[in-house]
Design brief:
The protein is α+β, with helices and mostly antiparallel strands. The protein contains nine helices and five strands; from the N terminus they run βββββααααααααα. Strands 1, 2, 3, 4 and 5 form a five-stranded antiparallel β-sheet that branches.
């Protein structure tokens, strides 16, 4: 939503309100020992009057021997990076990045600290996986995006060159075959089931939080009612109910916010995105195979035509 020629104002989201659900998810180790990539500090940049705008994120690279490099990128530039890596690293299952959010009033998201924090965590995970793959981490597309200095680029390339890619082989042991060729149906089913499970679990956790809130509210109302003078006959059961709601609400809240639930939600999302990446490669490889088949057919036609012309010239 860039507005060309319109001055912009920059507003930094409050660090306290922008705290990520899990701070560890913003600092990710890479494939090179000692190299760490961090995505944080979401900053809203909007035009005067609040029309349009976007958010940028600080991307920090740290290495114990080569220091730090910092660059700011907006969400669309992460998407452009992924598109470039798809072309530069064919066959690699690149992690998906979060979908673009479209609202009638986009400025609402610019000041939503929780949304920006979640997005920073998701973008950090994307970069972590990209910098952990020897082909991607050594690409010029990634080093240019992260503004790595030349000594770090050379170190990363040396490390990547020393790694061995696993051989491509199918379950039946035929080397060189595409293991994704016959698994598209399974991948679609896995992706859909994973995403459905994630949505249902998220809904259950949300309902438990709502139940905890309602239970606390009911307990407060019971406590207030028991103090009224005209409900003497209800005072004892009301107080008993009020006393019991606190423990029930705490249990519901703890269950909804349990680390196991949060971790399962994260893992379901990650595996769903992995299945989506695999399906993306299936589509890309199909297009490549169709292009190769078309080219082979044209070459065969040209060769046949040249053969006929050669025969005719000898007659």
């Amino acid at each position: 939503n860039d507005l060309v020629g319109v001055p912009r104002t920059r507003s930094r989201v409050s660090p306290s309100s922008a705290r990520l659900p899990d701070a560890r998810s913003t600092t990710m180790p890479s494939g090179l020992p000692g190299l760490v990539v961090t995505v944080d500090d979401p900053t809203a940049e909007s035009s005067y009057g609040g029309l349009g705008g976007h958010a940028t994120y600080r991307v920090l690279t740290k290495h114990p021997d080569l220091g730090e490099t910092t660059v700011r990128h907006r969400y669309s530039e992460f998407r452009s990076l992924r598109k470039s890596l798809l072309e530069a690293c064919p066959g690699v299952l690149l992690p998906l990045i979060p979908e673009k959010k479209i609202l009638a009033n986009s400025s609402m998201l610019l000041h939503d600290a929780d949304f920006l924090a979640r997005r920073a965590a998701e973008l950090a995970e994307f970069l972590s996986q990209v910098t952990s793959h020897q082909l991607c981490m050594a690409s010029a597309e990634l080093s240019n995006f992260l503004r790595w200095p030349q000594p770090l680029v050379l170190l990363v390339q040396e490390h990547a060159a020393a790694q061995e890619l696993p051989p491509l082989e199918r379950a039946d042991g035929v080397d060189g075959a595409d293991p994704l060729a016959s698994s598209e149906g399974d991948l679609v089913a896995e992706r859909d089931d994973l995403e459905a499970a994630r949505i249902v679990l998220q809904r259950l956790a949300s309902r438990q939080k709502d139940s905890a809130t309602d239970t606390l509210l009911f307990g407060k109302l019971c406590q207030e009612l028991s103090s009224h003078g005209h409900v003497a006959g209800l005072r004892a059961p009301l107080r008993s109910a009020a006393d019991g709601t606190g423990a029930v609400a705490a249990a519901l809240q703890a269950q909804a916010e349990a680390n196991a639930v949060s971790e399962l939600l994260l893992r379901l999302g990650r595996f769903a995105r992995l299945a989506g990446s695999a399906l993306e490669q299936v589509a890309l490889r199909r297009k490549l195979a169709e292009r190769a088949s078309s080219t082979a057919k044209r070459l065969a036609d040209v060769s046949a035509k040249e053969g006929r012309e050669t025969k005719d010239s000898k007659r």
